[in-house]
């Protein structure tokens, strides 16, 4: 099936998320939509899938104009979509999830799940999915859950499959398996729209690459294009994709976590007897697939988690049991994983956000009075130093792009003397150009002798920044390894395999996919 978008625009008020976009997806083609977060990729696909009505333009299927009033119309036309955040009901079986919305019945109104089970087995056998129709979704690994989403679309006879950032929650091995599945689907005539900002994956599997920047198509490129060329198209300027840093010049141990356990409200150990240490002048990266205890670890350090045992010390002083204000006051800079809810106050000005943890201290306050001139002076300095793109530091933080919001958070946390710097998902939702800048600032902090802890689900970022890598799986420490550890070894560790077993597997199968990332 051939799919074509002609002059598609989508406006939200006066803001155009998509503007006059043309796109052609041929039958049996993997067509990548490449662009940074916020470029308009997902909005465009939501228009195609009937979730949004286009402001202008039209959609053609096999050269015939179509109009979708909702996802049901899109599915009826042969278009399926796998969202970045899966649309599955955890307590239902695979068959029950697949049947939802397309239920087969018998004897009138009785649900006939056997028909669905049969279809699941047929598709699973055809593509080697290895999915049990009667398995509960909540018991399945994330990679298998994603296969269930693909099966849902194929059961509904999807001829065009939209995959929206499909590797965001996968281990490297699961990512490679998904790319193989995409190739199989293509060989069977299925067209795929692959939405991503990860250059290695795009180059590995795409037939055609269309680059979107700020809601507009800036050009097409073949998968043979250089990664630097693609990155430049994404951000509109030349970008350096590799981080040049000298080996760490480490000092004594400054930060220690010992036998840390965090228990959820249901009694589950989300952090289980975790111990590690960080020396002055080194970056320890915490790696793992999202949801394996990273959030709870940083919250325990910050003093947010209640059900915590063990010990957390900074320069020999216990932090456990202190308030958030006391923890930050001990010299810890903290960049949270969600800047919008935890890092900024959207209705405060940029200048005010830059002093959120220092507003009551000199030079920004004298007694009970704040000092506007000092606050304004600080803001002008930080905006210039961190290249925050804004007409004025008196603008609201909500007026900034995601990348510039992240720069504000980083500027605030890195603009005071630190004894420890922690950054969780430091470049999530940030364009390639801003990633380059923020990574350099993190390494600069390390070079000044500060112990640094980075928490990231992006393996590329971990490999760029880390001096050592600690891998978490289901709240437990799988191991701490050197930053030179091969990518596939780290991927196996992220799936729960011990460092020794992962290294043995790497030696048996050394031909893992290598390449540049962004």
Automatic annotation (TrEMBL):
Pfam families: ABC_tran. GO terms for molecular function: ATP binding. Residues 3-239, 255-499 form the ABC transporter domain. Residues 499-518 are annotated as: Disordered. Transmembrane segments: none annotated. Keywords: ATP-binding, Nucleotide-binding. Gene3D superfamilies: P-loop containing nucleotide triphosphate hydrolases. SMART domains: AAA (SM00382). This is ABC transporter ATP-binding protein.
């Amino acid at each position: 099936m051939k799919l074509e978008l002609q002059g598609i625009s989508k406006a939200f008020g006066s803001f155009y998320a998509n503007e006059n976009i043309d796109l052609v997806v041929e039958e049996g083609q993997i067509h990548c939509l490449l662009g940074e977060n916020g470029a308009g990729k997902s909005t465009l696909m939501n228009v195609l899938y009937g979730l949004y009505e286009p402001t202008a333009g039209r959609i053609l299927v096999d050269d015939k104009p179509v109009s979708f009033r909702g996802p049901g119309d899109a599915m009826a036309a042969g278009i399926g979509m796998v969202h970045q955040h899966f649309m599955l009901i955890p307590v239902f079986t695979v068959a029950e999830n697949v049947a939802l919305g397309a239920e087969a019945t018998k004897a009138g109104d009785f649900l006939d799940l056997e028909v669905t089970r049969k279809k699941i087995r047929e598709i699973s056998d055809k593509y080697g999915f290895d999915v049990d129709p009667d398995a509960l979704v909540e018991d399945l690994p994330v990679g298998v859950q994603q296969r269930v989403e693909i099966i849902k679309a194929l059961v509904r006879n999807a001829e065009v499959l939209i995959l929206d950032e499909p590797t965001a929650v996968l281990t490297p091995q699961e990512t490679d398996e998904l790319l193989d599945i995409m190739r199989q689907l293509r060989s069977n005539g299925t067209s795929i729209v692959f939405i991503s900002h990860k250059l290695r994956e795009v180059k590995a599997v795409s037939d055609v690459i269309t680059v979107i920047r700020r809601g507009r198509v800036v050009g097409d490129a073949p998968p043979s294009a250089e990664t630097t060329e693609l990155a430049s198209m994404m951000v509109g300027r030349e970008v350096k994709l590799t981080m040049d840093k000298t080996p760490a010049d480490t000092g004594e141990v400054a930060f220690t976590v010992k036998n840390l356990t965090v228990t959820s409200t249901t009694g589950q150990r989300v952090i289980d007897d975790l111990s590690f240490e960080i020396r002055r002048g080194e970056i320890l990266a915490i790696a793992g697939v999202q949801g394996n205890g990273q959030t709870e670890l940083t919250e325990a350090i910050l003093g947010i988690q209640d059900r915590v045992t063990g010990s957390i010390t900074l320069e020999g002083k216990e932090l456990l049991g202190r308030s958030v204000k006391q923890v930050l006051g001990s010299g810890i800079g903290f960049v949270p994983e969600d800047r919008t809810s935890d890092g900024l106050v959207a209705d405060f000005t940029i200048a005010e956000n830059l002093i959120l943890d220092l507003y009551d201290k000199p030079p920004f306050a004298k007694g009970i009075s704040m000092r506007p001139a000092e606050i304004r002076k600080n803001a002008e300095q930080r905006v210039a130093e961190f290249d925050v793109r804004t007409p004025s530091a008196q603008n609201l933080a909500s007026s900034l792009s995601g990348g510039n919001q992240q720069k504000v958070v980083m500027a605030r946390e890195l603009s005071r003397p630190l004894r420890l710097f922690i950054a969780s998902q430091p470049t999530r939702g940030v364009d390639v150009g801003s990633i380059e800048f923020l990574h350099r600032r993190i390494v600069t902090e390390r070079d000044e002798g500060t112990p640094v802890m980075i928490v990231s689900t992006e393996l590329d970022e971990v490999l760029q920044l880390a001096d050592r890598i600690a891998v978490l799986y289901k709240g437990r420490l799988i191991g701490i390894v050197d930053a030179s550890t091969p990518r596939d070894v780290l991927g196996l560790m992220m799936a729960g395999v011990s460092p020794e077993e992962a290294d043995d597997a790497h030696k048996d199968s050394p031909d893992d996919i290598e390449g540049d990332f962004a």
